[in-house]
Amino acid sequence: MAEASRSATEPGRPGLAADAPANAGEDWGWRDETPRHTIAYLLGAVLRAGPALKPGVRVLDVGCGNGHMCAEYVKTGATVVGFDISQAGVEIARRSVPGARFEAMAIRPDALLRLGEEPFDIVLSTEVVEHLYAPEEWARCCFNALRPGGTLIATTPHHGYLKNLVISLTNKWDAHWHPAEEGGHIKFWSERTLGNMLREIGFAELRFSGAGRVPMLWKSMVVAARRPTGATAGSGATAGTGGSAGSGGSRAR
User: Fold this and answer.
1) Facing residues of 126 across strands?
2) Is residue 49 a part of any domain in this protein?
3) 76: in domain
4) Is 168 domain-assigned?
């Protein structure tokens, strides 16, 4: 991750300069526009999970990394905004995806206000929630950034009974957790735990699918969830403090 800063292209936007958490000196390894290896199996699954794309659809990428996923949405004519705590990633995204807007800021429930944007039709967040100390902050951020009827598309490494059993039988948990790795995954989600959190925030009509490998041993799971029409943010409306930010496209095992 890198220190969050105010946009160089739109100075004066509220709240973009003071977002950096305590470990904001890291940059999450972004060096160029090369996508993470996860894009190979996530891209198609993510595009299939969401609504049909057409010019003018508004898309927000929460934890956009170097912007590679955003570039795919720009190609469809969508209006795309991305943000990430990594200043390095955001600078690369600005250079490589000039058709989108990128900001360096943390994941907090009031992201829409801090961006100064109208609500979005689609909120995208790939391989982010597993990195966060405060995942409910992420869920509220996504909920609050959507228009009523809008869709969240999120991915995270898959954990389910069969995959967990295979990891146990092959004695691979040490490699799977990789505890000596700096940063990395700190939350491990199942369909039930992720689904429960999203429903508590206010999301409805959740649909899960898998990506990578074979069914039940998927590398990642993809969830599409809708913000109900007419729904208020409820617990998701709180501004929150101290939210952490991830960087899209991390390793799935």
Assistant:
1) 155
2) yes
3) yes
4) yes
Evaluate the CA torsion angle 40, 42, 45, 47 in order and state its sign: negative
Q: pLDDT tens across 86-105, in order?
A: 999 999 999 999 999 999 99
Give the pLDDT band (50/70/90) at residue 232: low
pTM of the model: 0.79
CATH number at 147 reads 3.40.50.150
Amino acid found at 7 = S
| Residue 72 domain boundaries | 39-80+118-237
User: What is the three-state SS of the chain?
Assistant: CCCCCCCCCCCCCCCCCCCCCCCCCCCCCCCCCCCCCCHHHHHHHHHHHCCCCCCCCEEEEECCCCCHHHHHHHCCCCEEEEEECCHHHHHHHHHHCCCCEEEECCCCCCHHHHHCCCCEEEEEEECCHHHCCCHHHHHHHHHHHEEEEEEEEEEEECCCHHHHHHHHHCCCHHHHHCCCCCCCCCCCCCHHHHHHHHHHHCCEEEEEEEECCCCCCCCEEEEEEECCCCCCCHHHHCCCCCCCCCCCCCCCC
The total domain count for the chain is 1
48-70 per-position pLDDT tens digit: 998 988 899 999 999 998 898 99
Q: What are the structure tokens assigned to 103, written together? A: 């900001």
Q: Examine residue 2 and state whether it is found in any structural domain, yes or no.
A: no
